[in-house]
Amino acid sequence: MKRILSMLLLAVLAAALVPAAYAQGGCTNATLKGNYGFNFNGFVAPGKSTKGHEVPWDVVGVLTADGAGNVSISYTAAVNGTAYAAQTASGTYTVNPDCTGSQSYTGGDAAGLTFNMVILGGGEEVFAISTTAGSTATVDLKKQ
Fold it and tell me: What does the DSSP assignment read for 125-142?
């Protein structure tokens, strides 16, 4: 009985410390590695403009992170009811020790887009928000 209680106490203590480890430096670029399915919803000013009336913007696709700060995406987008299939882009990402970070796309169809993100569950899920002028969008990525 004493041994069972000791094991139970150890398990509870470990469960309490794991989230603290991530909050105190548990994330690096390597935390994001592999393929992530994503959906992306928001609004964008047409033509990557910062002026004008924003229109609906929805995207679904796959993001691939290499664990070293490089990212690529393939996706289908719908902007104000017009679909754009077979879109691709590449860029970089940076992960901070507190599991926040940023993404910047420099090549392909999404060149110029930037996002701030927060990593959940040791890299199993990511929430992001567009920081690109002229857009309002949130993203949910889940590891495949």
Answer: EEEEEE-STTEEEEEEEE
Q: Which two tokens stand for residue 85?
A: 């299939």
The torsion angles phi and psi of 134, rounded to 5 degrees, stand at 90, 5
Tell me the per-residue pLDDT of 36-86, one tens digit each, with 9 for 90 and over: 999 999 999 987 677 778 999 999 999 999 999 999 999 999 999 999 999
Residues 113-129 as b or e (16 or more Cβ within 10 Å = b): bbbebebeeebeebebe
Q: Which domain holds residue 104?
A: 29-143
**For the whole prediction, is pTM greater than 0.85?**
no
The amino acid sitting at 37 is: G
CATH of the domain at 68: 2.40.128
5: CB partners within 8 A, 6+ apart: none
How many angstroms separate the Cα of 7 from the Cα of each of 2, 19, 49? Answer: 9, 20, 59
